[in-house]
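Hey everyone, long-time lurker, first post.

I ran two proteins through the pipeline my lab uses and got sequence/structure pairs for each. Pasting them in order. The first:
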Amino acid sequence: MNRAPLFLLYFNVLVVATCGLIYELLAGTLASYVLGDSVTQFSLVIGTYLSALGVGAWLSRFIVKRLARAFVEVELAVALLGGTSAPLLFFAFAHLRWFQALLFAEVFAIGVLVGLELPLLMRILRDHLDFDDLVSRVLAFDYIGALLASLLFPLFLIPHLGLVRTSLVFGILNALVGLWGTWLLRPILTGRVGGLRIRGVFVVGLLAAGLLRADRLTDLAEEEMFPNPIVYTRTTPYQRIVVTRKDADFQLFLNGNLQFNSVDEYRYHEALVHPALIAARAPRTVLVLGGGDGLAAREIFKHASVESVTLVDIDPQMTSLADQFPLLRELNRDSLHDPRLKLVHDDALIWLEQTREIFDAVIVDFPDPNTFALGKLYTKRFYQLLRQRLSPEGAITIQCTSPLVARSSYWCIVRTLEAAGFKVAPYQASVPSFGVWGYVLARLTVEPNPSQLPDELRGQLRFLNDETLRSLFDFPEDFAAVPVEINRLDNQMLVRYYEAEWKRWN
């Protein structure tokens, strides 16, 4: 075999390795998207896939004849199974009670097939290279493929193609490698190849048709996952944004998790914003971390003392939605266009490390800590940085998930704030779409809890009045503190608490 075909076979190794890891990452991402519990799901998917690679490598020893034909057959099988994995699993989640069994069965089957591919290619190449060259070159291309997959997946594929398109594109790539193999390996292919080529063309055509209808496939799958019709979707480098609507009400979901329902979001945002601004006594400068929907900013601007608001949200697509989506722009009262607002797109942790601004009040409105990327925004390190940016008379409020459903998670946030040097006042509010929801009011000194609305707010609020404001700080016995560890960057205990507790309710 001359150098050109050898190089092409190495290229096949690269494609095989890249595609295999992409399918694994797709399965892990999809599992965490629809099931939550991202750490556990990713760990189980990776473990299942790696063990399946070993099973596939072991099974390859039983293929002793017609190696080239076996390789092409396996390649087409991987293409079909891997390429259809994302749309198939999306639909299965909506209709099958045993979705997890199907998920891990598919991951295992793909892993076995990928585990077969590399040993077959190595055996095809062994007559043309000595053993040392064979192993070093094949493994080098294998690891390069893994590197390509790990870079492409988060930086390009998911943000620009999404789960379904990525699955179908790499299935087509696998199928084309198999089809190409019927010519590249023709000198050692035994028997007729017409049937192989027809199957290869069929698989490519089937996946290409799916790719042309990828948006519709995604819409159909997601429509089964959400209770109301979808009116907006967008995949960004940071999250999947979905807006659903029923009659005059609409709901925002991030990565499948409800962020607010327009029918009762005012309860959540009034409880989040006003205790801090009342406690800060006529604040002039306010910082909002998260809150890209503009709803917290809407509440802040009800305070006449506010001169400037800095809103830091990592995702430009989220703030663009708040600015351009008519339903949301009406709901947030065009708050992102207020001349007092300064919009910053950055990672909140990095931004806090760099800024030297001091704020009279801070509103922290991050999504729940269901991943390590979000969990870092609830750590002692993060709160220490936040403490440095707060004026001596200032106040902070933080949304802290449900003290009823996720009691350890809630108190982990409270104790972490205390460990960072804050004096805390836990409180809660009832939001029908979420149930009982928890917050923390944090200050640098011990002060009485807010008990009376300023005159300027009277008549502007739908939920809070003097009596309701005072009742927020009443904690029933089933919300009482429990022993927890502090959430640090090096342990991320909060994510572990959160996943364990919400898993019981999902």
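...and the second, right after it:
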Amino acid sequence: MRKFIIITLALIVSACTGSPPTVLDVSLAVTNPQFGDHDPVQWDSYRPHQYPVHGIDVSKWQGDIDWRTAKRGGVAFAFIKATEGGDHLDRNFRQYWDGAGRAGVPRGAYHFYYFCRTAAEQARWFIRNVPKDPKALPPVLDMEWNHGSSCKYKPSAAKIRAEMRTYLRIMRTHYGKKPLVYTTVDFYKDNNLGSMRDVEFWLRSVAAHPKDVYPGQRWSFWQYTGTGKIPGIKGETDINVFAGNPAKWRKWVEARTN
């Protein structure tokens, strides 16, 4: 009886604050996917596997994906690279988009930002290539430094935030969903993204919990590795967790896919 009560409570307790699940949430840990890693990290007290809901983000580098195997292995969602700049479409986007959809994996698309084109121009390119699907997860704006890019222009932090707001506004108007922003530790700090209080974040941190490297920042997704092992994918891939239990995840998806 005690075990039943704990599990029931775990399904109704939710706090999408970026803090690890409570003890009640951990009662569901036996159902958590335990994905491997090609370059594992020795986590401290806050570990990715404390979170029940895991998913992936992918681009052309993942090659062929067996989406049904990935789903059976514990992949609960996927964010798929669609576009970059104003003229680049990831060569595997449509294949991944259709494959994830057929397998029943909730999926969304992301855009990799390029600093030598305007936000409006890049938003139009994304809209041209990504279906307006009410059942899709929200679109994502990927903001990070790309030191290998052909674009050497580095806007001011104020300019970057202004362009982000332009892009996010166009996305929300077109798709009818509040977009997410993916970012990295250095980009977040360099551009004071913590000041953008109305943004829903997906944060990268592959050696420590976000609470340690993004102090006080709320988040919905945490990318905890770039070298993960996923059933259905031959090579390395990024793995992420959602900041909540399965009940919170279902509620989050339902609110954004209707």
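Reply from user beta_strand_b:
Welcome! Quick read of the second one: The radius of gyration is 18 Å. Confidence is low (pLDDT under 50) at residues 1-17, 19-30.
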